[in-house]
Every structure is written in structure tokens, then in C-alpha cells.
């Protein structure tokens, strides 16, 4: 039995790929393709690494649900005691439906609407992570009108380079996120003056798929400088939230393990005398990314003069990361392979040249074979679309030797349900 890199719960046995105690080919036969399959044990193991890292500390792990917003996944994390980091009213409704405690929900995002603020106040979320001075003013008006106090944390943009893809770097001055480091103290002074606000914390999030601990340590230093300045101005901060962003192994990436990273970060926190504070973090990808695979069937092989194409039934609408960020996902045959390997671009049926899942992959495949696109638990199904009027894929959650269908395949009728013909 051999485990797949980065995927502790996916292994090969007699040439066949399994997830936990189930062969992936059987799941594809039963539910069709494209199919997302998640391992419950892998998600809980990823969470346990964070929980180990915070043992003995006062800490709240708020799962950044944008990574995978399936209700079943949310329920799993809610039952395991997690809070949630949300970024929209839609996400709020989903976490509530999954059984989250509103008091453990924090609301990030640069463009919260008045309606979203009102609803979040109505259900009593734990904290608004405010991203601009204008938002602070608006939240004050909305909360005052509702006759309640909104708990706020200000998201600092620490101007630290997370050394990741530019589209998923968020902690640089040029990024739209957070309040500039040098404006933050001013924003806190304003927050305590405004009615309807209660300052409870400070937060930052520097980017995603971070594979190196150094940017976190830099950001922590900058945030702690601010904590000290804000408290020196007489404004106490009950919690510090360091965001998410820890990367996963897509292609030999070697991010630190969550507990190792947090041992380093906590050592710094202790050294600066802040170890006793309530800590919050917002991991997304590192909790779910390598807990999932996307199964797809080879439709056609199309040899060409310059390139061979392996046309599969999953596409950029199901798994947009390669098209959006030129991201690499490993692609593995699900069953033992026969014949000679050839080099293929693995592409989907969507009418875009950007519709590719992998480039220049050595594969020994025939039409009808199944492939598994790895590291598909994060930012795949949650970013899926209906482009080309393709239905969203089905999802299965595997728990040991049991598989639960947690989302049915979407049909064209499902998609048309919201539409009305004018005449
Ligand atoms: C505010 C905020 N928190 C948490 C996350 C989760 O990031 P990741 O999935 O990289 O852990 C993100 C996404 O980058 C985010 O924007
Ligand atoms: N969607 C991105 C991550 C975005 C993180 C959100 N701030 C990805 O797939 O890598």
C-alpha cells in the first residue's frame, strides 16, 4: 500500500486508488463523473494538527469556509468545535444551516453590504473584521440604527510579502485588503468614538498557499507592534487573529505542518509577552485541500502534431484553479494502467483554450479510463460555475468504509429554476 504525496488518506493498493476504505473506481461507477470525493478523516486530521498546535492556549479556529462551503463539511467542522470565517451573507446562511454557533462566526471581506451587516447583527455573530475606515462608519450607523453594539476587529494590512501567487497575496500595500498599517491606530481611535461599536480585537491575513513560515513571523511582529500602540492609547484588544493562508503540497511543496508553524509563532508571541491572549486563526485550504480528489473520465484521446490532448469530462467550470492561477494539480490514473505512457495536455469540454487541468502529463490512458485530480478539496467546488451550462458536479464524503452523497449532480432544470421568461 502506498500513500499519495500530501494525501494521507488516499493510497494505492494493487494498482487501484482508494480513499480511506473505499476504492475510488466504485464511487465513480455509483455516482458518475465528474465527482468530488472528500475524506472525513483527512479533514479531522488536518484540524487536529492545529488543535495540537494550540494545546493549552485560549484559541479559536475559525474555518475559512470559502475554501469548501459544502454543508456537510461545515457541519463536520461545527461539530468539531470550530468557528467560521465568512465573507458574505450567503456564507452566513450556510454556516447557520450547518449548525454553527453564531458567536463563533467572524465576518471578513472588503465589501460588506448594509443588509449583510444587519443580518449578521441580528443573528449575533462574534465579530466583524473591518477592512476600511469607511466600513467602520457604515457599521456604526447600521448597528446604532438596530440598537445593538457590533463587535469589531480591524484588519491590518501589514505590507508583508507572503511570496505566493499575486492573485492570492493579500497583505501588501497594493492589495485591496485591510487598513494600512500606518492608518490602523487612527482607525481604532475612531472606532472607540463611534456609537454602536465595541472594539474586541485585531486581525490580519497576508495571503494563501503560503509555504514558508517567515512571512507569518514578519506579519506577527508588525501586528504586535500595533497591538502595543493601540493598547498604549488606552484601547484594550481581547483577541488577536492571525488569519489563514498555510499552504498544502500540490507539487512537492513543503509547507510547515500546522503544529510546527504554530509552535514557532507562539514562541514569538510568548517572547513578546502576548502568549496569554485569546488567539484566533482562519485556516481554509490547509484543512480541506488535500482531503479531496476530483474523479473524471477520459472521453477522447486526440493526438496532434505538437500536442496530444486527453479530453476528460471535468473542466475549468468544475476545477478553475489551473485556468485562473496556472495552478498545478497532480493527476493520477484511478486503476492500474496499461500500454505506453504519452505526454498529454489534460483538458475539459469547455469552449475555452484556457480550459485545462494539467499540462504535459505523462499518462498511459485510454478512453473510458478514470483519472483523479488531486488536492481538489479546496477552492475547486466552491469556485465552480455553470459556464457552458454545465451542471455542478456531485460530492461524496467518505467516512471509513461508508460514502455519503452530500451533494447531487446539478441538472439543467436545477439551473433554470431561478429564471423567468418575460412573455
Ligand atoms: C480573510 C481571509 N481569511 C482566511 C482565508 C483562508 O485562507 P487559506 O485558505 O489560504 O487558509 C482567506 C483566503 O485567503 C481570507 O481572505
Ligand atoms: N481561490 C484561491 C485562494 C483564494 C484565497 C482567498 N483569499 C485559490 O484557489 O488558490
TrEMBL record:
InterPro entries: Ala_racemase/Decarboxylase_C, DAP_deCOOHase_LysA, De-COase2_C, De-COase2_N, Orn/DAP/Arg_de-COase, PLP-binding_barrel
Protein's recorded name: Diaminopimelate decarboxylase
Pathway linked to the protein: Amino-acid biosynthesis; L-lysine biosynthesis via DAP pathway; L-lysine from DL-2,6-diaminopimelate: step 1/1
GO BP annotations listed: lysine biosynthetic process via diaminopimelate
Annotated residues for binding of substrate: 285, 321, 325, 352, 379
Positions where N6-(pyridoxal phosphate)lysine occurs in the chain: 66
Keyword Iron: no
Ranges where the Orn/DAP/Arg decarboxylase 2 N-terminal domain occurs: 46-288
Catalytic activity: meso-2,6-diaminopimelate + H(+) = L-lysine + CO2
Pfam family membership, one: Orn_DAP_Arg_deC
The family this protein is said to belong to: Belongs to the Orn/Lys/Arg decarboxylase class-II family. LysA subfamily.
Assembly information from the UniProt record: Homodimer.
Record-annotated Orn/DAP/Arg decarboxylase 2 C-terminal domain positions: 39-377
CDD domains per record: PLPDE_III_DapDC
Keyword set, alphabetical order: Amino-acid biosynthesis, Decarboxylase, Lyase, Lysine biosynthesis, Pyridoxal phosphate
Needed co-factor(s): pyridoxal 5'-phosphate
Protein purpose: Specifically catalyzes the decarboxylation of meso-diaminopimelate (meso-DAP) to L-lysine.
Binding site for pyridoxal 5'-phosphate: 245, 282-285, 379
Annotated active site: 351 (proton donor)
Amino acid at each position: 500500500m502506498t500513500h499519495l504525496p500530501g494525501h494521507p488518506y488516499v493510497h494505492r493498493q494493487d494498482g487501484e486508488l482508494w480513499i480511506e476504505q473505499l476504492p475510488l473506481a466504485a464511487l465513480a461507477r455509483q455516482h458518475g463523473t465528474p465527482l468530488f470525493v472528500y475524506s472525513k478523516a483527512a479533514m479531522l486530521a488536518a484540524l487536529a494538527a492545529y488543535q495540537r498546535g494550540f494545546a493549552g492556549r485560549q484559541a479559536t479556529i475559525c474555518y475559512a469556509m470559502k475554501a469548501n462551503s459544502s454543508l456537510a463539511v461545515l457541519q463536520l467542522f461545527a461539530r468539531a468545535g470550530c468557528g467560521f470565517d465568512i465573507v458574505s451573507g450567503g456564507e452566513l446562511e450556510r454556516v447557520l444551516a450547518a449548525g454553527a454557533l453564531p458567536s463563533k462566526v467572524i465576518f471578513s471581506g472588503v465589501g460588506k453590504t448594509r443588509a449583510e451587516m444587519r443580518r449578521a447583527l441580528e443573528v449575533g455573530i462574534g465579530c466583524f473584521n473591518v477592512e476600511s475606515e469607511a466600513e467602520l462608519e457604515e457599521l456604526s450607523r447600521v448597528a446604532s440604527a438596530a440598537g445593538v453594539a457590533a463587535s469589531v476587529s480591524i484588519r491590518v494590512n501589514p505590507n508583508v510579502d507572503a511570496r505566493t501567487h499575486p492573485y492570492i497575496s493579500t497583505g501588501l500595500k497594493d492589495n485591496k485588503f485591510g487598513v494600512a498599517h500606518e492608518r490602523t491606530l487612527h482607525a481604532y481611535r475612531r472606532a472607540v468614538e463611534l456609537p454602536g461599536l465595541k472594539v474586541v480585537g485585531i486581525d490580519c491575513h497576508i495571503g494563501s498557499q503560503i509555504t514558508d513560515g517567515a512571512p507569518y513571523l514578519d506579519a506577527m511582529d508588525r501586528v504586535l507592534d500595533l497591538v502595543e500602540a493601540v493598547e498604549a492609547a488606552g484601547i484594550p484588544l481581547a483577541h488577536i487573529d492571525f488569519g489563514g493562508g498555510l499552504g498544502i503540497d500540490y507539487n512537492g511543496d513543503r509547507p510547515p505542518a500546522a503544529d510546527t508553524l504554530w509552535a514557532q509563532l507562539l514562541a514569538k508571541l510568548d517572547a513578546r509577552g502576548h502568549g496569554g491572549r485569546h488567539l484566533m486563526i482562519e485556516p481554509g485550504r490547509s484543512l480541506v485541500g488535500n482531503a479531496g480528489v476530483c474523479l473524471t473520465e477520459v472521453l477522447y484521446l486526440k493526438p496532434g502534431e505538437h500536442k496530444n490532448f486527453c479530453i476528460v469530462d471535468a473542466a475549468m467550470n468544475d476545477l478553475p484553479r489551473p485556468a485562473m492561477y496556472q495552478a498545478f494539480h497532480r493527476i493520477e490514473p484511478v486503476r492500474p494502467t496499461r500500454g505506453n505512457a504519452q505526454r498529454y495536455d489534460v483538458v475539459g469540454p469547455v469552449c475555452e483554450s484556457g480550459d485545462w487541468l494539467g499540462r504535459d502529463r505523462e499518462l498511459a490512458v485510454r478512453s473510458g479510463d478514470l483519472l483523479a485530480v488531486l488536492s481538489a478539496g479546496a477552492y475547486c467546488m466552491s469556485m465552480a460555475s455553470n459556464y457552458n451550462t454545465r451542471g455542478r458536479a456531485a460530492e461524496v464524503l467518505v467516512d471509513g468504509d461508508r460514502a455519503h452523497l452530500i451533494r447531487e449532480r446539478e441538472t439543467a432544470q436545477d439551473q433554470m429554476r431561478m429564471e423567468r421568461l418575460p412573455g
